[in-house]
Amino acid sequence: MRELLQNEDILEGLLAGIDQGVLLATVEGQILFANEALRHLMELPAGETPRSLNDVGGVNLKLAITRGLIERGFDDAVSRRQKGVVELERWLDLPSGRRCFRLRTGIVERERGGAVRLVLLRDVTEMARLREGAAGSAAQDFITRDPRMLEVLRQLRQAAPTEAYVLMQGESGTGKNVLARQLHRLSPRAAQPLVEVNCAAIPSELLESEFFGHVKGAFTGATGDRAGRFAAADRGTLFLDEVGEVPLNLQAKFLKAVQERSFEPVGSNRSQTVDVRIVSASNRNLKDAVEARQFRADLYYRLSVITLHIPPLRARKADIPLLIDHFLDRLYTRGYARAVLAPEALRLLLDYPWPGNVRELENALEHALICAVEGVIQTESLPQDIRDYHSQGALPAALHRSEDADSHLRGQILFALKRCDGNKAAAAKMLGIDRTTLWRRMRRLGLA
Ligand SMILES: Nc1ncnc2c1ncn2[C@@H]1O[C@H](COP(=O)(O)OP(=O)(O)OP(=O)(O)O)[C@@H](O)[C@H]1O
């Protein structure tokens, strides 16, 4: 191999055939060789060879490389005449505004004729798009004073510096996304991307290519290579929301990617390696899904090295006033006028079972601010659901206490059944009681 590579013709032949851009230059920057793929990537006319690093498609490649090298101490490495490839990531925006490249560069020591600089270029426009999407999520505090939730935060802080996969179980809107971002931020991977995928939001037939990417021609409409989310999260964290929605037929490939840290993009038989830490979330109990044979047990155990159970908002009502203050402040910074809560409105908010959890509370407060009267949030300013819940349970003050309690209970049950489309198991869960208790109460109140 060594001898073969000494033969420049053979080397050129090999490099010409690969689809990554390859450039060989002297350490001083004079170009010795550029393959066809590089010309294509740099949008150079066919047959034109760049003569120097400065002469590549109008992009000051030399500067980009030199800066990158200095940042990563490459020049120092050159002076110490170290061998090896330095990997450095740098987005290069071409004048056309269309492309970015990931650069890998290194110094290759030759037996005769000194060292050469080797530069590899790859089109990563798609990956840049995915990462930009991921970067949009700003840091955010998790507001709580609930002892169970504080314990969850303690576990999260302990797990963050490790490589352990973390699974978060909790109803929709309980803050799993916020926690995933916090976990990433506290981890050694914080400087790398956090890529989020909501597995429920992507049609199942597209999930494979969304996760693993595809190559040109893999299926109708695959007009070019496309990087997947695993690749975009390389060296960072991949957050899989609603992981229970990954279809069974994809779970085997998924497990392999998680276990062996390698996968093949759709339509390709070439393995790609990745180094990702997986944090996942599910609002349905994944263990139940395993028992119902809807989720692979081996994958479940892989993903749930650490499991965090996020309690619903109705189980931590002490957080409600804190969250109200937090969201009113946040809404103020978004341009809403300041408002105060009338005591009766606060009572309704504390009473309500919050099936949509913190997300529903946040939306309710935005609604309330829009409907506030002269800077005061009255009961009338609250969304209909919250007022309905109250009015169905509310009673004329003259009625007897136990009747009062029964009527309140009846209202709660009717509300929960309505919100859960008549599903008693879901309604019982929402009310924080078991199904038998719900059924007994319904019978006693004449609802069953
Ligand atoms: N403890 C908290 N402190 C501050 N904001 C919170 C808290 N919990 C949730 N939120 C806010 O509530 C909203 C919903 O939270 P998030 O998206 O993290 O919930 P989720 O459990 O991931 O929901 P889903 O399962 O539907 O994806 C977000 O706007 C988030 O900022």
Question: What tags apply to this protein structure?
Answer:
single chain; 448 residues; alpha/beta; Beta-Lactamase; Rossmann fold; Helicase, Ruva Protein, domain 3; five-stranded parallel beta sheet; 20 helices; binds adenosine-5'-triphosphate; P-loop_NTPase; transcription; Homeodomain-like_sf; ATP-binding
Overview of the molecule:
- This protein is of the alpha/beta class and 448 residues long.
- The chain has 3 domains: 2-122, Beta-Lactamase, CATH 3.30.450.20; 129-311, Rossmann fold; 315-444, Helicase, Ruva Protein, domain 3 (Orthogonal Bundle).
- It contains 20 helices and 14 strands.
- The chain has helices at residues 2-6, 8-17, 36-41, 61-71, 74-79, 125-135, 147-159, 176-185, 204-212, 229-232, 248-260, 286-291, 297-303, 319-333, 343-351, 357-371, 384-393, 401-419, 424-431, 435-444, and strands at residues 21-26, 31-34, 84-87, 101-109, 115-123, 166-169, 194-198, 237-241, 262-263, 272-273, 277-282, 306-309, 340-341, 376-377.
- The strands form 4 sheets. A 5-stranded antiparallel beta sheet has the order 2-1-5-4-3.
- The N and C termini lie far apart (81 Å).
- The model is unreliable at 54-91, 132-139 and 394-401 (pLDDT under 50).
- Adenosine-5'-triphosphate binds at residues 140, 142-144, 170, 172-178, 241, 281, 283, 326, 358-359, 362.
CATH superfamily descriptor of the largest domain = P-loop containing nucleotide triphosphate hydrolases
The total count of helices amounts to 20
Biggest β-sheet, characterized?
Answer: 5 strands, antiparallel
- The percentage of residues in β strands lies in 5-15%
The CATH architecture of the largest domain comes to: 3-Layer(aba) Sandwich
Quick check: average pLDDT? 77
Specify the structural class: alpha/beta
Which spans have pLDDT < 50 for at least 5 consecutive residues?
54-91, 132-139, 394-401
How many domains comprise the coordinates?
3
Radius of gyration (Å): 29 Å
Give the ligands present: adenosine-5'-triphosphate
Oligomer: single chain
What is CATH's topology name of the largest domain?
A: Rossmann fold
- In the CATH scheme, the class of the largest domain would be Alpha Beta
Helix content: 40-55%
Tell me the strand order in the biggest sheet: 2-1-5-4-3
